[in-house]
Design goal:
- The protein is α/β, with parallel strands linked by helices.
- It is built from 7 helices and 14 strands.
- It has a 6-stranded mixed sheet, with helices on one face. The chain has a 6-stranded mixed sheet with strand order 7-8-9-10-13-14. A two-stranded antiparallel sheet has the order 11-12.
């Protein structure tokens, strides 16, 4: 398994390229602000051919470069239907005050947009991605898991030591706690979490020390694989 990534733009949003190995097909996760050059560099370095872009949610810092990345390689973008409108109306995902900062930005949907659903198993680039709908940060937030490798791309659901904010349009704190309880806490401790911002972590580390996971714990179901 090859996972290469970099923090993109002023928001330092983690963009990931995922492939079975160098020289093969790959999937791109969350190409954010000014991510085109970084994506192209990694594609060349590892001799990768993208087949899809996966979006954990529709916030501007995660989708900024999706149209040019998809257009240059003629690949589809996948997003949950609850967040699809943010691809062409990014200001709708921000507060009125912060929306003024992005008033001059015009984005558009890629030519080929496909919609994600909870529990879907997507076979892409020789890998199986499981889609978990994890609302709370936005209504259409999702995480992607590679179960055999025990890897989770958590977007802005779960960070090392923290979670995504829930005070923007479409966010809701009780909902994000339920998502953490339903989709994160049942995972094995050794599951590697690759978040939308900041360093990677593990479910075990967050279970032991993340105050938000502790708050979510009373709502969790049985833990798998521990």
């Amino acid at each position: 398994m090859l996972i290469a990534g970099f923090p993109a733009g002023a928001f330092q949003t983690n963009c990931y390229l995922v492939a079975p190995a160098a020289g093969e097909e790959c999937v791109i996760v969350d190409p954010g602000q000014d991510a085109v050059d970084g994506v192209d560099d990694l594609l060349r370095e590892h001799r990768l051919k993208p087949v899809a872009v996966l979006l954990t949610h529709g916030h501007l810092d995660h989708v900024w470069s999706v149209a040019p990345v998809c257009g240059a390689r003629d690949v589809p973008a996948w997003i949950h239907p609850e967040d699809r409108h943010l691809l062409s109306d990014p200001a709708a995902g921000w507060s009125p005050t912060s929306s003024q900062l992005f008033g001059g930005i015009t984005l558009s949907e890629p030519d080929d947009v496909r919609e994600l659903s909870d529990g879907a198993v997507m076979e892409l680039a020789g890998m199986e991605f499981v889609v978990d709908h994890t609302p709370g940060h936005t209504r259409g937030s999702v995480s992607f898991r590679l179960p055999p490798e025990e890897i989770m791309f958590s977007g802005d659901l779960l960070f090392a030591g923290s979670i995504g904010r829930s005070d923007l349009p479409g966010g809701d704190y009780p909902t994000i706690l339920r998502s953490l309880a339903a989709k994160c806490l049942p995972l094995p401790d050794e599951t590697v979490v690759l978040p939308g911002h900041g360093p990677q972590t593990t479910i075990g580390r967050e279970r032991a020390s993340n105050p938000y996971l502790k708050e979510a714990a009373p709502h969790a179901g049985p833990t798998r694989g521990i």
